[in-house]
Backbone:
C-alpha cells in the first residue's frame, strides 16, 4: 500500500507540531496536569481557533468534514507532544456519540458549541463490574411521568470532572448483559442527584466516578431510539480506538527518537553506549515494533474511509491495531526506560510520562488481551 498524506493533512500535522514545539514542553504539561481543571482553557480556545475541534464533524454541522486519516494526523502529533487536553473525550467520544445517535435538534444545539470550544463533554459508559464490556450495564433509567429517573454509577469517566454535558448509557429494558435495551441520555453534568469523585490517573488525566441518584430526565434528553443505544456507542468507540492508537504511534516515535539520542550522549567505558551492538539490536526491535504499529494504523484508517470495505474486515483491522499497539507500547516503553537507566522513570525526564500514557492507552477501551480474544472470536465466526 502506497500511503501518503495530502497537502492539507501535512499542513494540519505541521500546525500541531508547531504548537507542541513552541508552547508545550514537558514542564508546561506538568503544570497543566496538576492544575485544578486538569487542562488549559487557553489552549482549548486556541485549538478551536485553529479549527482542530471541527475536524471530525461533517460540514452540515459546521465541521471540517475530515476523514479518519485527518483525525489520525492530528492524534499522532498530539501523541508526540503528550497533549493532555480532552480532545478524545469531548470531540471524538462525546461529539462522536452525538453524531451517531443525536437528533438534528440535539446536534445543532451542541456540536456547534464543541467546535467553538464553548462546551466540554464526557461519555459515561463504564461501570465497576463491566470491565470492557459495553453491554454490561446495571445503571437504570426507569420510565416515569413522561420521562425517566436515572440511578446507578459510572466509573473512570474521561473528562467527567470538567464536563458541562454528559452522555450516559443506562438500561431501559432487558437483562444486565443484553445489547438491546441500552439507551443513551444527554444530561447536564451538574443536574440534581449527580455526585462526582475526582481521580487523577498515572498519566495525569483527570477522570471521575459519577453517581446518579434519582436524576430526573425528560423525553427530549433521550438520544436516538429507546433501547437502541449500544450500536451508536460501539461504533464511536471503534473510531476512538483507532484515534488513541494513532496517539500511541506518536508516543512510540518520540520514545524511539529520544532513546537513540540519549544513547549517543551517555558514555560507558569511554564510549557512547549507542555503539554497543547489543543495545543497537534492542533499539532496532523498538523501531520495528513502532513501524508495525504504524502499518496497521494506516491499514485501519484506510479501510474505515473505504465505503466499499467489508465491515467485518474493518472491525478485524481495528482489533488487530489495538492488540499491536498494546504489545508494541509495552516493549518500547520498557526498553526506553531500561536504556535511559534509572533516570528513565523519574519525573524530571519526559520518558516515564510517555510510558505511563502508553500504559493507559493499552488499558483504555479494552487492552491487548481482551481485543485479541475478540479478534479470535470474530475470525472463528467466519
Residues:
Amino acid at each position: 500500500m502506497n500511503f501518503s498524506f495530502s497537502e492539507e493533512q501535512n499542513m494540519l500535522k505541521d500546525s500541531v507540531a508547531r504548537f507542541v514545539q513552541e508552547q508545550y514542553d514537558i514542564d508546561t504539561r506538568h503544570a497543566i496536569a496538576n492544575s485544578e481543571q486538569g487542562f488549559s482553557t487557553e489552549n482549548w480556545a486556541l485549538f478551536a481557533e485553529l479549527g482542530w475541534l471541527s475536524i471530525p464533524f461533517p460540514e452540515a454541522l459546521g465541521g471540517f468534514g475530515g476523514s479518519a486519516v485527518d483525525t489520525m494526523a492530528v492524534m499522532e502529533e498530539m501523541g508526540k507532544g503528550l497533549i493532555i487536553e480532552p480532545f478524545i473525550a469531548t470531540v471524538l467520544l462525546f461529539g462522536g456519540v452525538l453524531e451517531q445517535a443525536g437528533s438534528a435538534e440535539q446536534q445543532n444545539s451542541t456540536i456547534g458549541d464543541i467546535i467553538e470550544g464553548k462546551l466540554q463533554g464526557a461519555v459515561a459508559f463504564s461501570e465497576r463490574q463491566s470491565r470492557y464490556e459495553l453491554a454490561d450495564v446495571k445503571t437504570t433509567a426507569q420510565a416515569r411521568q413522561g420521562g425517566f429517573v436515572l440511578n446507578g454509577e459510572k466509573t473512570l469517566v474521561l473528562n467527567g470532572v470538567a464536563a458541562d454535558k454528559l452522555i450516559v448509557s443506562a438500561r431501559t429494558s432487558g437483562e444486565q448483559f443484553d445489547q438491546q435495551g441500552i439507551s443513551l441520555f444527554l444530561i447536564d453534568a451538574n443536574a440534581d442527584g449527580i455526585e462526582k469523585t475526582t481521580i487523577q490517573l498515572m498519566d495525569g488525566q483527570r477522570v471521575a466516578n459519577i453517581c446518579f441518584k434519582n436524576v430526573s430526565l425528560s423525553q427530549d434528553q433521550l438520544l436516538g431510539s429507546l433501547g437502541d443505544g449500544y450500536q451508536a456507542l460501539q461504533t464511536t468507540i471503534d473510531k476512538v480506538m483507532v484515534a488513541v492508537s494513532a496517539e500511541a504511534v506518536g508516543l512510540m516515535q518520540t520514545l524511539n527518537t529520544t532513546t537513540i539520542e540519549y544513547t549517543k550522549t551517555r558514555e560507558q567505558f569511554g564510549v557512547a553506549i549507542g555503539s554497543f551492538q547489543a543495545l543497537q539490536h534492542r533499539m532496532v526491535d523498538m523501531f520495528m515494533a513502532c513501524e508495525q504499529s504504524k502499518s496497521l494504523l494506516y491499514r485501519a484508517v484506510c479501510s474505515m474511509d473505504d465505503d466499499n470495505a467489508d465491515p467485518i474486515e474493518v472491525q478485524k483491522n481495528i482489533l488487530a491495531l489495538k492488540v499491536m499497539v498494546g504489545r508494541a507500547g509495552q516493549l518500547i516503553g520498557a526498553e526506553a526506560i531500561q536504556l535511559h537507566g534509572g533516570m528513565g522513570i523519574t519525573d524530571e525526564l519526559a520518558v516515564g510520562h510517555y510510558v505511563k500514557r502508553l500504559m493507559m492507552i493499552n488499558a483504555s477501551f479494552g487492552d491487548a488481551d481482551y481485543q485479541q480474544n475478540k479478534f479470535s472470536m470474530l475470525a472463528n465466526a467466519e
Summary: Residues 231-381 form a domain with the Butyryl-CoA Dehydrogenase, subunit A; domain 3 fold (CATH 1.20.140.10). The chain has eleven helices and ten strands.
